[in-house]
Amino acid sequence: MPFKLPIFRKKVLDLLASSDETKVMHVSDTPESVYRFIGELIEKTDPDYVIHTGDLADNIKLERRPELRPLYKGAIRKLAHVLKGYGVELYIVPGNEDDPELVREFFGKAVVEPGTVIEIEGVKFALGHTWKDVVNLDADFRLYGHNFKLIERGLNGVLGVNFVLLPSRQTYRVKYPGGTDFDRGYKMWRGM
Prior knowledge:
Layout: H1 7-18, E1 22-27, H2 35-45, E2 49-52, H3 69-84, E3 89-92, H4 100-107, E4 116-120, E5 123-127, H5 131-134, E6 141-144, E7 154-156, E8 161-166, E9 171-174, H6 180-184, H7 186-190
Parallel strand pairs: 1-2, 2-3, 5-6, 6-7
Antiparallel strand pairs: 1-8, 4-5, 8-9
Helix pairs in contact: 2-3, 3-4
Protein name: Metallophosphoesterase
Pfam families: Metallophos (PF00149)
Domain Calcineurin-like phosphoesterase: 23-106
């Protein structure tokens, strides 16, 4: 059963779906609970590019619990199935909770290092997991996640799924489903 969308989110998705511009979709710090939501967003909006800026299975805190590697591997296998199932061009930046070796196993040449700058239709995107990876890079857009920090020309993928339309450079944010921050462990770790 598809997620029921609030009116505002539905209007943004309708606008994105009807746009003829090139669409860049950006996600970050994704717990397994949002994988289906991400797949549905891809189906509805038909992006040309999907950029994930790390912590691919953010409900599994691999940095703190390395013994969870088998669970993590299963989770990113599911995410790879979702992301690769639509034929979009992918860029994946490993985060602090990721195992770069496993990320490369599932995403191959789509994996880029934090601090990489890519160009899409003449627009530069700096890609990193944290704001520190991108803050000093020369780019039109700085894509990152990891925490709630905001920076100049930055799009934080923790706050929502970001879309950039090209060539207009219009940006839109679609909120993650309710409970996403809890699934990330933010309420427990941050005492919210």
